[in-house]
Design goal:
The chain has helices at 36-43, 49-62, 83-87, 102-114, 121-130, 138-142, 176-188, 222-229; strands at residues 73-76, 95-99, 145-149, 160-166, 190-202, 207-208, 214-215, 234-242, 254-261. The protein is α/β, with parallel strands linked by helices and 267 residues long. The chain has a seven-stranded mixed beta sheet, sandwiched between helices. A two-stranded antiparallel ribbon has the order 6-7. Strand 6 and strand 7 (214-215) form a beta hairpin. Helix 2 packs parallel to helix 5 and helix 7 crosses helix 8. The chain starts with 35 loop residues before the first helix and ends in a 6-residue tail after the last strand. 41% of the residues are buried. Mean pLDDT is 93; it is low at 12-20.
Length: 267
């Protein structure tokens, strides 16, 4: 116990404990205001090494799935990124592009209705070189896609034979608890025996696109992924990809690529 000050001496001022900053949750961000054009310009106007790594990782899984054998799949939080959708088009008869943001949904619908931007063709060329079961034309591959309004946390359980998620759960919240909840919702959306594919930015703090506002993110590593996915999956594999110096500086340390199976009989 600290002794009281002597008569005539000023009172002792104790330093205040630092106030904990409340986490920014997924619902706190205005995803309708996502900067679609700036995001595409920074990340997808050319095929970056990190994109090629994700495509190669996913293609290795899709080649092991009989063409057309997955009745329905979901890409969670698609954004304006087309390459996870095109990569799934041989294995999956229908692909739901689940997206909460109005601007991203509008972009996806334009790409489906009027044909994809030419910048996406190199992505598809790589996809087809790795998975010859894909149709010759990118537009044909994307014809399997339907755009679905909705958020990752609201996915119904056991709806899909396959689920994919590309830079989503770690890029929408600063809360470790919410990150884990979103990953569980992602895993539980898949029927027993179904497959999971995901890509995560490793170690990435909250970030900006161009000179826009700060978007919430949680720096995650392999231990965080294993903690949430190991109890829910079998054949869990996590691969680290080195930081891509051709991308803007988002503060990340690279990527983590995940594949797994939901326990149970075939999807």
């Amino acid at each position: 116990m600290t002794a009281p000050p002597a008569p005539g001496e000023p009172p002792v001022r104790r330093p205040r404990a630092p106030r904990e900053r409340a986490p920014r949750l997924n619902a706190d961000a205005d995803w309708d205001a996502w900067p679609v054009d700036a995001y595409l310009r920074e990340n997808y106007r050319e095929l970056h090494p990190c994109d090629a790594a994700v495509i190669r990782h996913h293609a290795a899984v899709y080649r092991g799935i009989a063409p057309g054998s997955v009745a329905s799949a979901v890409e969670c939080g698609t954004g304006p990124n087309l390459y996870p959708l095109m990569a799934a088009a041989a294995a999956c008869r229908r692909i739901d592009a689940l997206e909460p943001g109005a601007g991203n949904r509008a972009y996806l619908r334009r790409q489906l209705a009027h044909g994809p931007d030419p910048a996406w063709q190199p992505f598809y060329d790589l996809c087809r070189s790795l998975d010859p079961a894909l149709p010759p034309a990118l537009a044909t591959a994307l014809s399997r896609v339907r755009v679905v309004p909705g958020a990752l946390g609201g996915l119904p359980e056991r709806r899909y034979g396959l689920a994919s998620m590309t830079f989503v759960a770690e890029s929408v919240t600063t809360s470790a608890a919410e990150f884990a909840d979103l990953c569980r919702a992602f895993a539980r959306a898949v029927r027993p025996g179904g497959r999971l594919l995901a890509a995560f930015m490793a170690g990435m703090p909250s970030y900006r696109i161009a000179d826009g506002p700060l978007w919430p993110a949680l720096p995650v590593g392999e231990d965080a992924l294993r903690a949430v996915f190991a109890p829910l999956t079998t054949s869990l594999r996590i691969t680290r990809v080195a930081k891509d110096p051709t991308l803007p500086e988002y503060g990340d340390t690279g990527m983590l690529l995940l594949s797994a199976t939901r326990p149970g009989p075939g999807a």
